[in-house]
């Protein structure tokens, strides 16, 4: 193999379960990006998230220590369904607030609910992000297309996860998966996730990378 499989992952929304998740990732030397809504960290309580609990600022700082943070808008805003003014506010202010909280350059953006249109893509690009991510299209190659409409290979809980992983080794040698920590409800769920992370970390033909370090085209 000419080079190792570059494995990247990101996790949406900033649920309190990210505290457990980050411990597992850290234990096995995995790299990851946490996609956060800045207003959630500052006490905003969403009314339509099915009772999910989200990290506050202190919890997020602890969970994300040593990891990357990406912009998920201020309040998980579905960008095509708001005015241009509100779209810009959700994207630009979301990035600025995250950078202020975490004291790191927030390069990534993830579209809430994978909802995007030309206006949203333009705003994300002009706000200074390196990339914009939607949802997965199974085993879609990383190359080609706009870096502001990029899609990962697969959700971490997809039954075809390892098939996608093996096919990425034969193809682009880049493998991107994403997930939501709040979907892990019991001890067995967490054990299965830890086994997955451990297996990747021990794969001699793979290495963890940060998303922003992928070979992005201009």
CATH hierarchy, class: Alpha Beta
- Please tally the β strands and state the result: 8
Helix content: 25-40%
Q: How many domains make up the coordinates?
A: 1
Arithmetic mean pLDDT: 92
Major sheet size, sense and barrel closure: 6 strands, parallel
Give the CA-based shape: globular
How big is the Rg?
Answer: 17 Å
> How are helices and strands ordered from N to C?
EHEHHEHEHEEHEHE
Strand content: 15-25%
Secondary structure blueprint with pairings:
Elements: E1 5-12, H1 18-27, E2 33-36, H2 38-41, H3 57-63, E3 68-71, H4 84-102, E4 108-110, H5 118-126, E5 131-133, E6 154-155, H6 161-170, E7 174-179, H7 187-202, E8 206-208
Parallel strand pairs: 1-2, 1-7, 1-8, 2-3, 4-5, 6-7
Helix pairs in contact: 1-3, 4-5
Structure, explained:
- The chain is of the alpha/beta class and 218 residues long.
- It has a single domain, classed as TIM Barrel (Alpha-Beta Barrel), CATH 3.20.20.370.
- 34% of the residues lie in helices and 15% in strands.
- The protein is built from seven helices and eight strands.
- Strands 1, 2, 3, 6, 7 and 8 form a six-stranded parallel sheet that branches. Strands 4-5 form a two-stranded parallel ribbon.
- Helix 1 runs parallel beside helix 3 and helix 4 runs parallel beside helix 5.
- The longest helix is centred in the middle third of the chain and has 19 residues.
- The radius of gyration is 17 Å and the shape is globular.
């Amino acid at each position: 193999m000419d080079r190792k499989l570059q494995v990247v992952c990101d996790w949406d929304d900033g649920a309190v379960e990210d505290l457990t998740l980050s411990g597992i990732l850290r234990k096995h030397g995995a790299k990851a990006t946490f996609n956060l809504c800045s207003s959630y960290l500052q006490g905003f309580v969403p009314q339509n998230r099915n009772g999910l609990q989200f990290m506050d600022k202190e919890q997020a700082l602890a969970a994300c220590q040593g990891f990357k943070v990406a912009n998920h808008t201020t309040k998980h805003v579905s960008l095509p369904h708001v005015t241009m003014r509100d779209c810009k506010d959700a994207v630009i202010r979301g990035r600025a607030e995250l950078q202020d909280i975490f004291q790191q350059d927030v390069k990534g953006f993830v579209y809430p609910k994978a909802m995007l249109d030309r206006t949203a893509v333009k705003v994300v690009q002009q706000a200074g992000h390196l990339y914009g991510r939607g949802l997965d299209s199974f085993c879609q190659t990383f190359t080609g297309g706009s870096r502001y409409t990029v899609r990962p290979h697969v959700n971490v809980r997809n039954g075809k996860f390892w098939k996608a992983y093996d096919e990425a080794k034969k193809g682009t040698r880049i493998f991107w998966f994403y997930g939501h920590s709040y979907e892990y409800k019991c001890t067995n769920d967490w054990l299965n996730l830890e086994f997955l992370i451990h297996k990747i970390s021990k794969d001699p033909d793979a290495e963890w990378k940060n998303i922003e370090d992928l070979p992005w085209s201009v």
